[in-house]
Amino acid sequence: MRHSTLRYPALVILLACAAAFPRAQQAPAAKKVLTVEDYTKWRTITSPEISGDGNWAAYVLSLTNVVPAESKPVLHLVRLESGQQTEIANATAPVFSPDSKWIAYQVDPTGGRGGRGRRGGGAGDTAVPPGSPSAQPPANPAQLTTPPGQNPQTSPAQPPAPPAVPPPPPTTAPQPPITPAPTEAPSPAPGERGRGIAPVEQPTRVELRNLATGAVKSWQDMQGFVFSPAANVLVLKRKPASTGGGRGTGANGGDQNPSGGVPAAGAPANATPSGPRGTDVILHDLTTGRDQLLGSVGDIAFNKTGDLLAYTVDAAVKDGNGLFVMDLPSGRLHVLDNDAKVYSRLAWSEDGKALAVLKGVDVDKMRERDNVLLAFSDVRSSFGDAEAVPATLDPARAAGFPKGWVASDRAALDWSDDDRRVFFGAKAQVPAPPVGPRKSIDEQANVDVWNTSDERVQSLQMMRAEQDRNFTFREAFDASASKFVKLADETMRDLEVAPDGRWAVGRDTRGYISDYKRPAADIHEVLARLEELETLLLAAYTRWDALDSRASSG
Predict the structure, then answer these.
(1) Conformation bin of residue 154: beta by default, left when phi > 0, alpha when psi is -120 to 50
(2) Among 32-36, 187-191, 418-422, which is the least confidently predicted range?
(3) pTM for the whole thing?
(4) Which of 90, 93, 124, 360 could, after both became Cys, cross-link 369 (CB 3.0–4.6 A)?
(5) Where are the strands (E) in 222-307, listed by range?
(6) How far apart are CA 451 and CA 362, in angstroms?
């Protein structure tokens, strides 16, 4: 009996091995080999957004590994409670309103980001929910088309009435047939080569969608938009007629880039263009649905509460330029300053009570604009007060301001939390580079010369040349005392200011710059007091992790 009990388990094991052996002999399923065609079918998700109430989500799904004109972005709008989706072809940059009742986005009918035409059978601009049958062309496109600036029809269109029977033509005597004179076919314009007339390219537009009803309103040729914090106004800034290059890009750690799309207030440190940059701005009232037009607007920004809207006018003829503030609840417009100069770098304080701006003039044959800084510590108190004057920093007259330097519009303006100080960028005035033809007939040298005493290798110098030319030093203006406070200089170029504006941390990298060693610097604590400026050397750190450990340990 012992042999029989041992025989059955052995038999079971043998049968299991025999059953598994054919499976082991089967070849594994071959994986699909990716080709070049598959590489261009990959898609990526960008611009994810969630509404403030958490009921809606939006994201853009577009092709990657293709040229921008072939990306074919599709905006997906999802109602999270029901899972219902709406797709908007060629739409990007979605933004929900603060009250979660609206969504605005950019639409490029060309089917790509900056492309000149729809290619490869790209989708049109019709919103089609996923899983629905293929959209058929409308029976009467003229009735379903929504011109920009008008609301679409929300009720079904009435069927067209049958055409009336035309009356019989009056009886007249027969006339001999008239043979039309032969005409020549229009010759193609130079460069057309007889291809016919090219289709008119459709302009880009911004669409505003009501999340509850689905109604859509659109505006053409807008470069950006932003909702007011109170969700009662949508600001849309139109594209300039011709885009001109600016005066370079600055480099400063205090610059900000506000979301929403309108280049305003604390935009990145791009120098304002030398020519007029004002364009039309449309204020769309989300409550009444009506629009108001503002002309030649340079910068525009809401304060934190959204009850005040400040903007500058930058027109070709500068005698109407100035700084204006609109009181949105009352609709009244207040003029804070007027001058035939260029206003730039508009900046609200964190609490929305103080306002600062630069105004200046271009200097002949010089690279930098000669600016003065205007600071309004209490904007509302300036309404209706003709004698109210802002605190003004004039670099030519301010005590302690470096001679030959300017308050630069290549850096943003920032207020301290207590609305007493304004931080700005300053740099030396230099001659403008020549723009005309070279007077010498000699060939221009194309040999790069590098000195062994240079702190950076030549390739890095070339990469950072423009950044170094536009670098600004962070300084402070005490608006409460109308006093200039010097912070950064050549010995301490990098400065990080605390939000309260009472102290800062500076980095002195002299003697530590290397092409292969880890970054290091002397760390300074800068106290920006009303009466004095103190600079205390904390320590000379050769490793950033040492500074991090010290900060974390208190």
Answers:
(1) alpha
(2) 187-191
(3) 0.72
(4) 360
(5) 222-227, 233-238, 279-285, 291-302
(6) 35
Q: In 3-state terms, what secondary structure has residue 482?
A: coil
Are 473 and 483 spatial neighbours (Cβ–Cβ below 8 Å)?
Answer: no
What does the block give as tokens for 476? Answer: 């402070």
CA distance linking residue 338 with residue 321, whole number of Å: 6
- Give residue for tokens 């007939």: 441
Query: What is the overall mean pLDDT for the chain?
Result: 76
Distance (Å, rounded) from C-alpha 46 to C-alpha 61? Answer: 7
Q: What are phi and psi of 6, to 5 degrees?
A: -85, -20
pLDDT for position 355: 97
Q: Give the CA-trace dihedral at 11, 17, 22, 27, to 10 degrees.
A: 170
> Is the pLDDT score of 490 beyond 60?
yes
- Pairwise CA distance, residues 157 & 315, whole Å: 45
pLDDT in tens, 427-441: 999 999 887 776 666
Q: What does R_g of the chain's alpha carbons equal in angstroms?
A: 33
Nearest to 62 by CA among 48, 50, 51: 48
Side-chain half-sphere CA neighbours of 538 within 13 A: 18
Nearest to 113 by CA among 94, 128, 95, 92: 92
At a CB cut-off of 8 Å and minimum separation 6, what does 151 contact? Answer: 215, 216, 217, 289
pLDDT of the residue at 524: 74
d(CA 219, CA 208): 9
